Automatic annotation (TrEMBL):
Xref: PANTHER family: V-TYPE PROTON ATPASE SUBUNIT F, VACUOLAR ATP SYNTHASE SUBUNIT F
Gene Ontology MF: a single term: proton-transporting ATPase activity, rotational mechanism
Protein name: V-type proton ATPase subunit F
Origin species: Pseudomicrostroma glucosiphilum
Assembly mode: V-ATPase is a heteromultimeric enzyme made up of two complexes: the ATP-hydrolytic V1 complex and the proton translocation V0 complex. V-ATPase is a heteromultimeric enzyme composed of a peripheral catalytic V1 complex (components A to H) attached to an integral membrane V0 proton pore complex (components: a, c, c', c'', d, e, f and VOA1).
Keywords: Hydrogen ion transport, Ion transport, Membrane, Transport, Vacuole
């Protein structure tokens, strides 16, 4: 299957973020809840959320759901599952680490930026 065929049905932006980031994304219109009320394209993570729960959401959005085009994850949350994030190399969904209100973006931790730097020999 070509990349354009893979991308054709991918229309959603998913997120694994803190409450503030998720609220902003939902207000921007990025939220979707299926009729069953269980299947959502976002996961709200707080201090009580275990790394295994975060991994489960990550796996659902990157492997099981075929309607996700982009997965946004707060960088401080990605740090909790860093080995899984660093190992991820699929074209779809595209994985983007974003800052949060309480945690600034650190380019030295971004897995995509690290791969780009390797490509250019930096």
């Amino acid at each position: 299957m070509s990349i354009s065929q893979q991308a054709a049905n991918r229309t959603l932006i998913a997120s694994i973020c803190d409450e503030d980031s998720t609220t902003g994304l939902l207000l921007a219109g990025c939220g979707q809840v299926e009729a069953d009320g269980e299947s959502k394209n976002f996961a709200i993570v707080d201090n009580k959320t275990s790394p295994s729960d975060i991994e489960a959401h990550f796996t659902t959005f990157t492997q099981e759901r075929k309607d996700i085009a982009i997965l946004l994850i707060n960088q401080h949350i990605a740090e909790k599952i860093r080995p899984l994030v660093d190992k991820y190399s699929q074209a779809f969904p595209a994985l983007l680490e974003i800052p949060s209100k309480e945690h600034p973006y650190d380019p030295s931790k971004d897995s995509v930026l690290k791969r780009v730097q390797k490509l250019f020999g930096e």
